[in-house]
Amino acid sequence: MKLIARSAVFIALFAAILSFAKFENCRSNGWAPPSDYIHACYSDLPALFGERELITHDWPYSSATKAVEYPPITGLVMWATSFLVGDSGNKYRNYFDINALLIALLFIASVLLLKKLKPELWYLLPLAPAVVASLYINWDIWAVISSLAAIYLFDARKYRTSALLLGISIATKFFPIVLLLPIALIFVRRSKFKQFIEYLITTTITWLAINLPFIFTTPTGWFRFFKLNSDRGADWGSIWHALNVLNVKIDNLNLISILFFITGASLFTLFIFGISEIPSLASVSFFIVAIFVTASKVYSPQYVLWLTPLAIIAMIDKKDRFDFWIWQSAELIYHFAIWQYLASLSGAKFAIPAGAYAFAALLRITALAWFALRLMRRSTPKFGPQNLEFLSNVGQGYA
């Protein structure tokens, strides 16, 4: 067991170093377009260090226009690490290096946690090329490890600690909030309504305890995250942006994206009730997050960090590896396409055209949907009278 643990640390460390090497061109030459796009080494870490005035240690939520566009824990990490930079050397590179070190440590911890959740397939995370390519783009890994821990503890039926960690995760990056749907459905199938209410209250109180100091002291800066997400149009990576590039305009995008998610969430609910045995949270979390990112108005390259660990724990056995690699290949194609398309918009002489970028975005989303459906099909028996009878019994039991 110690040898396996050491192997996991070694492989994760190697992946983290390999990812760091991918960003070396920008570390050496500065993060400036189109070079950072051409070399696929763009990172929000140094970009927001300057743009959000963290370089002068400004409180991340003090400005209505330059507040960080993330929930409080991520904002605190961004702000606190700015004090470790010092006054000598290249401040932007130093800030990147400090945050990259923390991200690498959290990534290694995430791999070790995944080894507990999926001991037969954990190695796919540090070997996933799109994960390695995206590791230092943003601070997403801070929410990934806390959400994985919440899932692990939920399936171990340590509900209070799980709820606490989920509240922390939602206060770090907002996407883990969608995990409350499968959590609710699992509790319903177990007829544990009181436990679900307790879980929801604990998660909510945790989230409020973290957010309320920001709401009371700097409400406008705190609210900027929600305002930007409400006001933004079709943004990079989303199906809506790809359609825009192809001159297919979508009106009332906020409403359409919400309806898209509600439809997907409804189908996901039917899927949960169509499984003969009550599923674990680990086995179904991937599907609801996949629905969320597909419906979202933005689908950033680093979202692969959200999806990949959840995809691995949703995989039934080694037979799913072929489908996994097809999906990862599509993610890698998009990772190349987004940077080269941005390079073209920034004045690069050689880059891909808009149509190729839109194709890569749609290919990525199609591959994700295909992979999710393949896993769902293996998780659920073929639809027939037995499913109708089961759903009927569920309805009678919970009426």
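Above is the first protein from milestone M3; the second protein from the same milestone is given next.
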Amino acid sequence: MNITICGAGHVGSYAAEILGNLGHKITVIDTDSTRLRSIEDTMDVATVQGSCASAEVLRRAGAVDADLVVAATNHDEINLLSASVAKGIGAVKSIARVHHSAYFAHRGLDYQEHLNIDQLICPEFSTATAIARTLRNPGALAMEDFARGTIEVQEFAVGRKAPALGKNLMELPLPQRTRLAAITRDGNSFIPEGSTTIQQGDNVILVGNASVFEEARQLFREKKRSRKRIAIMGGPSMAVWLCRALRGGNFAIRLFEIDPVRAEELAEKLEWVTVLQADPTDHSVFNEEHLDQVDAFVALLDDDEHNILGCAWAKSLGVPDAIAVVQRPNYMHLLPSVGIDKPFSPRRVAVKEIEQILDDSPIRRMSSLAEGYIDLYRIRVGDDSDVIGQRLRDVKLTPNWMIAILQHDDEMRVPSADDRIEKGDILQVIGRHGEEGTLKKIFATG
């Protein structure tokens, strides 16, 4: 494919490297000649110096014939304009990276539709969502987060005195828009049916809309959890996303921001969070706030070195779980040796999202939920599928398959038994490993 990338910063340069290595023809636009020379010296890509918001510059970069234009500068407005102009002059698809929630959450206006952009991506949001999922449940599954955090997927052991024990699925008062997707019992994983009884020692995979997920999970818990204490270092936009993702999830959050103006802004935005204008790596602050008693320390500064050192320092003083956001991939291999439990890279997240957008295949294996037993597939329903117009209760998939998530146009949800499948719907299907052929026949994916 011919791909034009606007911006040679962290995300743009990394996307150029990864997509170029996959065999795509890459052209990078940036106003900074130094950045472009660095890319030319290390990658087999073309470069154009100039403003990517200019139609003339985009034409020189080949955007007229591009299969994809990725606008990934550090400025939201430039990205939105560049992606829109690229589509206007002939690009097949365009993607704009945004940081601000007003653009990504469509507050006041659907900027994506209004500007004729195919996809908005927000690596900070996706990274914050992944961190929140890890904090809620360290065993949470690494599932494609295409639902912008509105759907949860978690795997956990059933508690010894859980309300669900001894009951079959038909008896369980699971909230609407939740599904028990799979059970692992005595080393074997399977898709449950209505008559399946929950037993002690079971591990379950639960899928549900975020708004009702915790209610559903209580059926499998032994007792209510105590509040989990979280310390966050740094207050960029990612911190706001993270605090919002954790809201109402039984977390006590303290956010440390040394800039007084930003700290005041955060306190106004996040009234359920304790915001402190202080440096948590200051020994006196650490002791005064008893940060050795927190459950997790999360470093979100826009500085890799400070994030790494802050986490290493917190671990050395007794914090059990340290999470660092790191942009540069050459640091990733160092992190386990300094005690950092989980690193997250927004630019890796961004490139993964771009790769998923590029993949137009009608059926794609996303991940393994139980190695060798249960897989997760993304499926686009074909025009000739026999299931079009059918309600889910009438589609005979069990015992091997379950439709966990349904996407119709831009709406994504955990479906109910009465939801109907329409032509072009995108499904997340959980089921038996190695039976892609059966899925192709059922959904006529070609």
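Note on the second protein: The radius of gyration is 23 Å.
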